Amino acid sequence: MKKFLENFLIGQMFKSKKFWYAVAGVLTTILSDTFGINAEEVNSILLSIGALILGQGFADMNKK
Length: 64
Known about the structure:
Blueprint: H1 2-15, H2 17-35, H3 39-63
């Protein structure tokens, strides 16, 4: 039963747009030096991703 719940939760997580937006935000932060993105641009990108996550959260609340 525990294994089923773990697989179900991980499966749900990978289907979530909010999860993938958060992954993109983490990767943006980690790889910003590699791609030469300055701190102001990273901040703007992260604010945009935060807005996407909030918007998707509101959409998900109204879906049920």
